Amino acid sequence: AADVLVLTVPFAHHDALLEMIRPYAAGKIVVDATVPLVPPRVSTVTVPPEGSAAQIAQARLGDRARVVAAFHNVAAAHLADLNHAIDCDVLVCGDDEAARDEVVRLVELAGLRGLHAGPLANATAAEALTAVLIFINRRYKVPGAGVRITGLPGSGSTG
Which of 10, 93, 100, 142 could form a disulfide with 69 if both were Cys (CB 3.0 to 4.6 A apart)? Predict the structure, then answer.
């Protein structure tokens, strides 16, 4: 019944869940936050042959689903507790510009800054950044490093 479906599952369960939601995804925006992490090496980038988990989702769900990739670089603990400010941006990738617009709007309603990051193929870079952030979190003993794009109005840097 929803207009927007949000997919947040471990990569190992991605295909099974896509199969489950396929009958309901036509005409809907499907926000895929899945990252192709392969335990136990979750701090090492893994790129699936299809390019990204989001591209896999689009292929499995078909052209009538409007897959948008987002939320890869926001720590799950931050998303679970929206009572504090989250100091990171959400990169939003998708081939359907109107669907990207809607997801950026939803990101902003959640109190974060959503940024159009191009077509669905660019989700490969956003997904890969997650493994890098996991490495940084472990190395520097921080609970949830994120990504902030500088040089944009309101980003604290004009350079």
Answer: 93
> What is the reported pTM?
0.93
Q: Any bridge partners for residue 13, and if so which?
A: none
Edge-to-edge, what's the strand order for the sheet holding 89-94?
A: 4-7, 29-32, 66-69, 89-94, 113-116
Using one digit for the tens of pLDDT, what is the confidence trace for 63-103?
A: 999 999 999 999 888 877 768 788 899 999 999 999 999 99
Which helix (H) or strand (E) element contains residue 16? Answer: helix 14-25
**CB burial string 53-77: b at 16+ within 10 A, e below:** bbbbbbebbeeebbbbbbbbbbbee
SS3 call for 27: coil
- Identify the H or E element spanning 20: helix 14-25
Q: How far apart are the first and last CA of the chain?
A: 45
Contact 1, 21 (CB under 8 A): no
Structure tokens that stand for 73 in this block: 């670089």
